[in-house]
Design a protein that fits this description.
The chain is built from 14 helices and 22 strands. The protein starts with 7 loop residues before the first strand and ends in a 32-residue tail after the last strand. The chain is α+β, with helices and mostly antiparallel strands.
Length: 507
């Protein structure tokens, strides 16, 4: 005879979800029952309260199955009359796509779909991409355990099933893209109504266990002379960071300023935006995503790549973390709709200066800088995109199929429009627009390549910054001309006229 366990499980229907089941646990050994239910995917919703919420609406059946196993282990189980009625009810799916299946076979198919859903929910199955296929959704993903297969998924909710398997994520993605290239989108598909309802059922009890949070002081308006002092050091640092024409010195205790030479700090100089260092692109992307709540970031199965998607699912950023100097680090694309064709795209190499990239990211954040409708490509839009260069009298060269703009004094920066590329109808056409800097136009230090219908305003912002942008960056100090033992005492330099900082201009 199985020894009794001091645990009691009270099973009842869920108060808000039409098919979910709740379990209330009592007794000194309630933990035993809790562990047993968690092992079969019941979710803890509050202290000694669990919820079974599935996407196949078979909760009463599986609650009854759990009750039989708990009773066999010596745990007391009570089932309410209304839950028992749901357990005994005979029902089936209307318009089930496989009408030849028996009720038990349908339940078995639904349980396999539930296992796929749970694997995604618990992070055991990583979905790389999804697409619409007629009236349903398809996806490709990889199980993350050792030796996990990559799989092709077809269907939604209780009809989702594995349609094919692959030995590697790369093989799976190539096969998926070959069939669904036009509709393919990164990451998992948006949640279905059934999935949202299951999440809501599991979270409806959270209020019973929420810990009280100390109330934060309520802000109030006070006269400026009564306001809090705040952090003056941080205030000064923010001012100096914003205004590059100011330089900070530490002083000795007697108030004598310590010149840069004695502080062993690097000098800074103002350089054109196109000649600046690339900075930390990864930190730049993180800062952009922190500030823009309507963007979401996730890592892909390729370890050195991050994907970020706008909440509209029509704009996407792909960033390669360890791209080589002349390789593409950024790929940005806009789509007509979440399942529509691509409207425009651009790429930027890893050496693209930080100021130029900031202008590009600012353009993505501004709703008027990108659009779901393609800008017409004609003589007027070309002129508008390159107007900042024309206004500053940059040299313009026209050949049989392209227009090139170059800095009038011969400095290494420029832009180009390729009319031939704009009309090329291939899977991988050459770039229509190119904005570059450093070295030579044929082998630039950095370059941004854009497709024909890249928004005119975004191009104009980039070319404007190419001319007017400037950043203050550190430069290595020159090597000392003599031994430190014979060096003459350093004197504080005479302040020079403040240079212009790198600024953003509204256009």
């Amino acid at each position: 005879m199985t020894p009794a366990i001091d645990a009691h499980v009270h099973l009842d229907t869920h108060p808000t979800h039409p098919s979910a089941v709740q379990a209330v646990l009592t007794g000194t050994q309630a933990r035993v029952a809790l562990m047993a239910l968690e092992a079969v995917d019941w979710s803890v919703a509050a202290t000694n309260l669990l919820v079974l919420a599935r996407i196949d609406h078979e909760e009463p059946y599986w609650a009854h199955d759990a009750a039989k196993h708990l009773t066999a282990e010596g745990i007391t189980v009570e089932i309410t009359p209304r839950l028992q009625e749901a357990i005994d009810e005979e029902w089936t799916w209307p318009n089930y796509p496989m009408p030849w299946c028996t009720r038990s076979e349908i339940r078995e198919i639904s349980d396999q779909a539930q296992k796929i859903h749970d694997a995604i929910r618990h992070g055991h199955l990583l979905v790389h991409a999804h697409a619409r296929d007629g009236h349903t959704t398809v996806a490709v993903g990889t199980y993350l355990h050792r030796g996990g297969k990559s799989i092709y998924l077809h269907g939604e909710d209780h009809l989702r099933q594995v349609a094919d398997t692959f030995d590697s994520p790369a093989e799976a993605l190539v096969a998926f893209e070959k069939v669904h290239a036009a509709e393919m989108r990164p990451g998992p598909a948006p949640l279905t109504d059934t999935e949202r309802a299951a999440i809501a059922a599991r979270s409806v009890f959270d209020v019973t266990t929420a810990k009280s949070v100390p109330s934060r002081p309520k802000p109030e308006t006070v006269p400026v002379h009564l306001a809090d002092a705040d952090d003056h050091d941080a205030l000064l640092d923010r001012f100096l960071k914003t205004h590059g024409e100011f330089e900070k010195w530490r002083t000795w205790s007697d108030g004598t300023p310590t010149p840069p030479a004695e502080r062993d700090e690097p000098r800074t100089e103002l350089v054109p935006a196109y000649a600046a260092h690339p900075g930390n692109h990864e930190a730049m992307l993180d800062a952009f995503l922190d500030e823009e709540d309507d963007w979401q970031k996730y890592r892909t199965w390729v370890e050195n790549t991050t994907i970020a998607t706008h909440e509209s699912l029509t704009l996407r950023i792909e960033f390669v973390h360890e791209a080589h100097v002349n390789d593409v680090a950024w790929t940005i694309a806009a789509y007509e709709s979440p399942t529509g064709p691509r409207v425009w795209h651009l790429t930027a190499t890893s050496a693209t200066p930080a100021g130029i990239m900031e202008v590009l990211l600012d353009g993505l954040a501004a709703q008027d800088a990108w659009a779901q409708e393609a800008d017409a490509l004609n003589e007027q839009t070309v002129a508008q995109a390159m107007r900042p260069l024309a206004d500053e009298c940059w040299s313009q060269t026209v050949d049989s199929h392209s227009i090139r703009w170059s800095e009038p004094t011969g400095k290494p920066a420029g832009a180009a429009f390729d009319a031939f590329a704009a009309t090329t109808r291939t899977d991988s056409p050459p770039p229509t627009w190119t904005i570059w800097g450093g070295n030579h136009r044929d082998h630039p230090t950095w370059a941004i390549h854009c497709s024909p219908h890249t928004p005119t305003k975004l191009l104009a912002d980039l070319t404007y910054d190419l001319i007017h942008g400037a950043v203050r960056q550190q430069v290595s100090p020159p090597a000392p001309a003599q031994s430190p033992h014979h060096a003459t005492p350093a004197t504080a330099p005479t302040p020079a006229a403040p240079p212009h900082p790198h600024t953003r201009h509204s256009r």
